[in-house]
Design a protein that fits this description.
This protein has four helices and twelve strands, in the order ββαβαββββαβββββα. The protein has 191 residues and is α+β, with helices and mostly antiparallel strands. The chain has a single domain, classed as Beta Barrel (Hypothetical Protein Pfu-838710-001), CATH 2.40.320. Strands 2, 3, 4, 8, 9, 10 and 11 form a seven-stranded antiparallel sheet that branches. The chain has a three-stranded antiparallel sheet with strand order 6-1-12, with no helix packed on it. A hairpin with a 2-residue loop joins strand 8 and strand 9. It is globular, with a radius of gyration of 17 Å. Mean pLDDT is 84; it is low at 78-83.
Length: 191
């Protein structure tokens, strides 16, 4: 008998003002194995009938395409993000055409610029969103007073099994929430 094991992403989110950047960066740096700059392009797609699904009381499954811009040979990564279900597919060629072929249409596009930290099985991204120039499709640098956003999440898909229970990943993410207490409010974010 075959069992269907789902993959999940466990995540917490937060935001803060630029004046708190040094203190929050220092705390993450002290409690992480590595830190690096990040600049990513993220496009969110929804099924072509997404509005119909919402009108029918069904939340459509979104497809998120992400590409790291600081890595010259970076590939598009597609996590299916909706604890959230998660699947990762590596695409060779044009990821945007791939999403279209699956029946998805572009819903939004943002650029994220900031820092990424590794802490065990977690990746912590701290970034400001950059808007997209409608003519060039290139990022427009964020205003210095733009809120910083934080995503603390599992770096790879988690399978909920006896050997690797989902509760272990939840505890790991909650440890970061406790670590940042008093400096950054990390919380759950519904789809």
């Amino acid at each position: 008998m075959a069992s269907n094991i789902n993959n999940y992403e466990v995540a917490l989110f937060g935001e803060f003002y630029a004046k708190d950047l040094p203190a929050i960066t220092n705390r993450f740096t002290l409690h992480s194995e590595s830190a690096s700059q990040m600049h990513a392009r993220e496009i969110v797609f929804e099924p072509f009938d997404g509005q119909y699904q919402r009108d029918s009381g069904i939340e459509p499954v979104l497809l998120r395409a992400r590409k790291e811009l600081l890595e010259p040979d970076a590939k598009w990564i597609h996590p299916e993000a909706t604890v959230r279900p998660w699947a990762t597919v590596q695409v060779i060629g044009d990821a945007l055409s791939f999403a279209s072929a699956l029946g998805y249409v572009r819903r939004s596009q943002i650029y994220k610029r900031g820092y990424a930290f590794r802490r065990g099985t977690l990746v912590i991204q701290m970034f400001q969103q950059e808007q997209v120039d409608p003519k060039t499709q290139k990022p427009i640098p964020a205003h210095p007073d733009t809120l910083w956003e934080v995503e603390v999440k599992t770096a790879t898909p988690i399978r909920n099994t006896q050997e690797t229970p989902l509760s272990r990943s939840i505890e790991t993410v909650l440890e970061v929430q406790l670590l940042m207490k008093g400096l950054l409010d990390l919380r759950r974010q519904d789809v």
